[in-house]
Write a structure and sequence with these properties.
Layout lengths: L11 E3 L4 H10 L4 E4 L5 H6 L8 E4 L9 E4 L3 E5 L4 H6 L1 H6 L1 H8 L4 H6 L2 H6 L7 H7 L3 E6 L3 E5 L4 E3 L2 E2 L5 E8 L5 E7 L10 E9 L5 E8 L6 E2 L1 H5 L8 H14 L10 H20 L2
Parallel strand pairs: 1-3, 2-3
Antiparallel strand pairs: 4-5, 5-10, 6-7, 6-10, 8-9, 11-12, 12-13, 13-14
């Protein structure tokens, strides 16, 4: 399928140095400005004319407060808005405690894009097939948002509204992603023609945390099989107050297949995607639940 790129449309370039400066500019130019972190989605979309050209692009790369990764045993993981995809795959605590994030990061695009693009930017694009989304959803991630009016925290489950649409307001930026606690086991499985150069046909993430009553809190998230990345809540409910077993895994995989809402497109049929949700969900659950 050919893709035709044009020259970038004209715009004014703005480079703030602080979060306050960035959100004040976005507020004073709401509807005609667009924030940019890595730009690996924004710039190609502008060239393809898939996005209305803003009058101003606000480049956040100069805002040092948004950079970096940190982890604390009590506070969990914080991913700054400017943390690159490559840095996610190399951060020692993420490799040790959040392997599904590493798997998601390494499945994205090319090394060049991973060196420039950001994990937060992948979420803010709002595309149903974003590789970071299922892994983050299964880990109960939440977003720290900042505007000129207020700061707020939003669970990632409430962030996605529709294809390419998020709850982010025109004068608002994501300052960080937070994962309060690590799962005991987590995994992200992606089906695509090539390992990292193609968008997901289907993506499934699973995470498990043991609860105090001896049962497991199992979380399952799906990508590229619904209008937005989604938690498979009916599949998760199979394990509520129920011992782990092969029958339960099989039932949950079937529930996930029934729960997803894929479409037919040039990459795969809806029927094929449903079948792959079943297969990948079963495999993911076997990896996190079977010793």
């Amino acid at each position: 399928m050919p893709v035709f790129y044009r020259r970038l449309p004209p715009f004014h370039y703005v480079s703030p140095r602080t979060i306050e400066e960035a959100v004040l500019f976005l507020a004073s130019h709401a509807g005609e400005s667009k924030p940019m972190a890595g730009g690996t989605d924004l710039i190609p979309n502008l060239k393809r004319r898939e996005l209305a050209a803003p009058n101003y692009i606000v480049d956040l790369k100069g805002v040092e407060e948004l950079a970096g990764l940190s982890w604390h045993p009590q506070e969990g993981l914080q991913i700054g808005a400017l943390a690159t995809i490559r840095s996610i795959s190399r951060f020692p605590e993420i490799r040790r405690l959040y392997p599904s994030l590493v798997q998601a990061a390494l499945s994205m695009a090319s090394p060049q894009v991973r060196n420039r693009g950001t994990f937060v930017g992948n979420i803010c694009s709002g595309i149903p097939s974003a590789d970071s989304a299922p892994a983050l959803l299964s880990l109960n991630a939440e977003l720290s948002l900042r505007s000129s009016r207020a700061e707020r925290t939003l669970p990632l489950t409430r962030f996605f509204i529709g294809p390419g649409e998020t709850a982010l307001q025109p004068d608002e930026i994501v300052t960080a992603l937070r994962i309060p606690e690590a799962a005991e086991r987590c995994v992200y499985l992606k089906l695509s023609p090539r390992h990292s150069m193609d968008m997901a046909i289907t993506g499934v993430a699973a995470a498990v945390t043991k609860s105090r009553n001896g049962y497991s809190d199992v979380r399952i998230a799906l990508g590229a099989v619904a209008p937005v990345p989604m938690r498979a809540v009916r599949a998760e409910a199979v394990f509520k107050d129920r011992p782990i077993s092969k029958d339960a895994i099989e039932e949950a995989a079937k529930a996930a297949r029934a729960e997803c809402r894929p479409i037919d497109d040039y990459r795969a049929s809806a029927a094929y995607r449903r079948d792959m949700v079943y297969v990948l969900t079963r495999r993911a659950l076997e990896q996190v639940l079977v010793p």
